[in-house]
Design brief:
membrane, 65% helix, disordered N terminus, transmembrane helix, globular, two-stranded antiparallel sheet, transmembrane, single chain
Length: 71
Amino acid sequence: MENTAIQTLSPQELEAVSGGISNDTGYGASLAASIFFTGVLLVPGIGATVALTAFSASLISSGYALHYGTH
């Protein structure tokens, strides 16, 4: 698996991630929004570009697992 610093998410994926994290933690939606806007500021014009750290990557993985595991 590639180890990349930038991950591009579609709006639907971003919604899935923020929804999944929010269900688990209660503050995931605001965290995902913060990551989203940071990504847009860092790389304007790309869309929902997320600058990943080990922490945010872990949260995003949890969000995917929760979202897709319960639907």
